[in-house]
User: What shape does this take?
Amino acid sequence: MPDGLYEALERYAGLGVRAMHMPGHKRNAKAADYLTALGARLDITEIDGFDNLHDPKGLLKDAMARAARLWGSERAFFLVNGSTCGILAGIRAATEPGDRVIVARNSHQSVYHALELMDLDAHYLLPEYDRALGVYGSVAPEAVERALDECPSARLVVVTSPTYEGAVSDIAAISRLAHARGVPLMVDEAHGAHLGFSPSFPPGAVAAGADIAVQSLHKTLPSLTQTAIAHVGGLIDPERFQAQLDIFETSSPSYLLMASIDGCVRLIEREGKEAFARWAKELDAFDRAARGLTHLSLPGHGAPSGLPAYAFDRSKILISTRGAGITGPRLSEALRARYNIELEMAACDHALAMTGLIEPDGALQALADALLEIDRELAPSAEGEPFEAPAIPERALPIARATRMPQEAAPLAESLGRVSAQYAWAYPPGVPLIAPGERVDRRFLQEARRCAGAGVPLKGGPADGMLWLIRGA
Assistant: This one.
């Protein structure tokens, strides 16, 4: 196998070339400890022989072609601004300002920011919902078909699969429905870069026919934070996507991040079959070790997921605390303080542990042991009222217009019936409970209070009990 970007950087670093160009540290890593630790000796800019991410013709072009072959896509694009820049570029490549788009309501905040930037008219899809856990399941193909009937002028369908909690949609069926109407499908697959490489995990969006699939490598695969890949083809012109990516991705892409992406691709090529088999074996062992839980429960691990979903991504370990006498944040704090285990997130009645392709030895066994020990200390409690199924708030104004109007802050208690000027979301996963231009209703206020009571802060507001509202609306 030819050398990759990392090997090329290592070789160049040993040549003793005097750097009369950016970056300012001049690869003089010995000048400061932090530069040594962060690998500055390999940190370069677009110099001779190292190609240009925004006009690739050599090393980077070959690296992205290698990634496309691995996933089976028409074109692959390295993303060093995370999945966010791929989502922004993908939506802009598929639409014109003012277009109608069909969007799953559980989309990441970057999708909403694209709606705002492009002044798009969103026709929202409500995914299926688990009222016991308060999480979204998958998007039903029937819901997409209804939306296409109700919105025949739609220029794009956007869904998230898998969700943060592991619910996978039937992307193949959704793709067929959208393509029958000539509408492209974009899948936010940020949490699913590992899908499709092993029968132990559901198939991925590229093989299922998505025209744009955006994946965060860093979430489950061995790559540095902020690294992602976009796969583009079908009804979307890759050159148009590249043009939009030039707008949203930095013009000074990090070669350290790009080397991480290329290294991840090459590792899967070289060791993928064995690595995925090992990961599945570790998850199987975790399921067996955690069978003794009596109060906490693990949907999808040792039992059916319970999520209303086409399939479940078992790389996510969803820990339900419902009826266990403990909240998700309290469980997360206990694992952190007593066992030195840091979870990915915690919500009202559940917490989430994420696993990865190169999980450290003993990590999953340690989690199982800690959960069993905590579980023995718990006493069952009343489960409380199920979560109310979400409804889309009444839209009074488009997002783009709402963000430009005069605003004022008001206490939550005085906001009922008024129009929000801001997003409010629990982050992670970054799915808005309300978006600009939507009218504050009882369900939003109830969910905001529930989050506050469980210690789950809402980002973007109303963390301080205040909500920005459109003045006079």
In short: The chain has four domains: 1-50, 53-268, 270-377, 399-470. Residues 270-377 form a domain with the Aspartate Aminotransferase, domain 1 fold (CATH 3.90.1150.150). The mean pLDDT is 94. Residues 127 and 335 are 31 Å apart (CA to CA).
